[in-house]
Design a protein that fits this description.
- The structure holds two protein chains of two kinds.
- Chain A is mainly α.
- Chain A is built from eight helices and no strands.
- The longest helix of chain A has 26 residues, at 75-100.
- Chain A starts with 10 loop residues before the first helix and ends with a helix.
- By secondary structure, chain B is mainly alpha-helical.
- Chain B has one domain (23-215).
- Helix content of chain B is 69%, strand content 0%.
- Chain B is built from eight helices and no strands.
- The chains are: A mainly alpha, B mainly alpha.
Chain lengths: 188, 218
């Protein structure tokens, strides 16, 4: 990627230009700061996937509050505070998820070879398809493009005409809804 | 999530680059907000009945009341200024401590006033009578002053809204207590002080609980 050699001193100028709507400067800024964000995220988080999640959340936050940067002041503390906050959010989220996960004794009744579980897998797939059919169209579309087709957010955004931000929101809502529905089915 | 997706996100974000209205420096924004709050307070003093600045204090208590007023005003102003600073990512966390000396001075002077009142008048007047009016005044004034302040603070979409809400709540409660001095019909007793402190605490608690809808954090 271009712009990798951008010095930290010029980050402020690039961000100030981005505030004026300069897309090229903004791209150079985001590319230049991403390794810094990654390194900062790694201070608190160790899994590579989770680090990349934090980096992406930080980039989205930078985009949303780029108007709060005051030109002339160092950018590093501004970025460091944002990535620290997103890292803490990710840690809290993962600890909440961990607390919600429960031991499933039925899991021990299946066999290691995938073929032995093919009937259950087929039923699960049908059930999942039925549940996905109940999602609102934009949530279903966001989930299929980003999770089943494994498109990047940018590609999914171009194909769906949904913004990156709304794709993320719709995926989040879809998963939340599916989780709720699956939970209800298990309780029946 | 993968690095490839991060690159795609950067492409999408830079493609969505548009000019943004830059925030003014926090001190400038804080002073503008305080000027707005002062205007609301002035309107209240001029328009509401029973406004009688400091005159109804006990004889010889005007200096004490003036000092308390100044300390509460200083605590309120510094808390609001600090709230605007901590709303911006990367600003010093020392701002959290900035209003504390003025707050301690305010509480100390109020306590001293209560002690003098106790020595002069004895335990008479240790009732809840008017104190509940003061309680309701601080809560109501905090709501009226707090909404425009929260709106101004929310422009920064603070990433960590709790300290912003606490400082903003403290600032608003202290400024409401200042406004109360213009309507206060009697010298402060320990019961008054306790009720004032409970009201200030409730305002800070409310501000903290409502921080997400009010400050719309990023």
């Amino acid at each position: 990627m271009a712009g990798g050699g951008t010095s930290k001193e010029s980050w402020g100028e690039l961000l100030a230009a981005a505030q004026r709507g300069d897309g090229v400067a903004y791209r150079r800024f985001l590319i230049a700061v991403t390794p810094f964000l990654r390194a900062r995220a790694r201070r608190r988080i160790h899994a590579d996937d989770a680090v990349e999640d934090v980096v992406q959340e930080t980039l989205l936050t930078v985009h949303r509050i780029r108007h709060s940067y005051e030109p002339g002041r160092p950018v590093e503390p501004w970025l460091a505070a944002i990535v620290a906050r997103r890292s803490i959010d990710a840690l809290r989220k993962s600890s909440r998820t961990g607390a919600r996960e429960v031991h499933d004794p039925l899991a021990y009744e299946t066999f290691a070879a995938p073929a032995t579980n093919s009937i259950e897998a087929g039923e699960s797939a049908k059930e999942l398809a039925r549940l996905m059919g109940g999602l609102p169209p934009r949530q279903r579309e966001a989930l299929i493009l980003t999770k089943l087709n494994e498109l990047s957010l940018g590609e999914a955004s171009a194909r769906s005409e949904q913004s990156v931000a709304s794709l993320k929101v719709n995926v989040h809502r879809a998963i939340k809804r599916l989780r709720l529905e699956i939970g209800r089915d298990l309780l029946k | 999530m993968t690095v490839r997706q991060t690159d795609a996100l950067i492409d999408a974000l830079s493609a969505a680059a548009s000019p943004v209205k830059r925030l003014a420096p926090p001190l400038t924004r804080a002073l503008a907000a305080l000027a707005g709050l002062a205007l609301i307070g002035l309107c209240a003093v001029l328009l509401l009945p029973n406004a009688d600045p400091l005159a109804m204090r006990g004889a010889g208590g005007e200096t004490q009341a003036g000092l308390e007023l100044a300390a509460a005003l200083l605590a309120g102003v510094l808390a609001v200024v600090a709230a605007f600073h901590v709303a911006i990512p990367g600003r010093s966390r020392n701002w959290l401590a900035v209003p504390l000396p003025a707050l301690a001075l305010w509480l100390g002077l109020s306590g001293l006033g209560c002690w003098r009142d106790l020595v002069r008048n004895g335990p008479a007047g240790w009732t809840l009578g008017h104190s509940m009016d003061c309680f309701a005044f601080i809560i109501a004034a905090s709501l009226v002053l707090g909404l425009p302040l929260a709106w101004r603070l929310s422009r920064a979409a603070p990433i960590d809204p709790l300290p912003v809400a606490v400082l903003g709540g403290l600032g608003i409660a202290a400024l409401s207590a200042v406004l109360l001095q213009f309507f206060h019909p009697f010298a402060v007793t320990f019961i008054d002080l306790a009720v004032h402190l409970v009201a200030v605490g409730i305002v800070i608690l409310l501000a903290s609980l409502l921080r997400r809808p009010m400050l719309r954090p990023a």
